[in-house]
Automatic annotation (TrEMBL):
GO terms for molecular function: metal ion binding. This is Cupin domain-containing protein. Keywords: Metal-binding. It comes from Sphaerochaeta pleomorpha (strain ATCC BAA-1885 / DSM 22778 / Grapes). The lineage of its organism: Bacteria, Pseudomonadati, Spirochaetota, Spirochaetia, Spirochaetales. The keyword Metal-binding applies. Residues 44-109 form the Cupin type-2 domain.
Length: 114
């Protein structure tokens, strides 16, 4: 199966999870299409935009950073991430991500249910 770019739905999510600004979200696959998967999307945060702190209980979220730089907040503090880095959050842990850089921060977000 091949899903063409023009078949993917893009939406703007304001103040996602209590964050700042807008997140441009392109759904790579519709919810329920992939077994045990709640989310599979490409996300884009412009300068000053963020996804607020949120928990992952009974699921694990993966952010594969594909462009720009961002700051991820986890229980043990803030960490800078850039293209090629993989953020993994599960087991009830929480995280947030923000873009303070001049370039857009882009990443693939995947949530797998435990």
């Amino acid at each position: 199966m091949i899903k063409k770019k023009n078949e993917m739905v893009t939406s703007v999510r304001e103040k996602m999870r209590g964050g700042n600004g807008s997140v441009l979200a392109t759904s790579l696959m519709d919810e329920g299409t992939i077994a045990h998967c709640r989310l599979f999307s490409e996300l884009k945060l412009e300068k000053g935009c963020s996804i607020g702190q949120h928990d992952h209980v009974n699921e694990t979220e993966y952010y594969l950073i594909t462009g720009g730089q961002g700051i991820v907040t986890e229980a043990d503090g803030e960490k800078t991430v850039s293209a090629g880095d993989l953020v993994i959050t599960g087991g009830g842990a929480s995280h947030a991500i923000r873009n303070e850089g001049d370039e857009p921060l882009t990443f693939i977000a995947l949530i797998i249910l435990d």
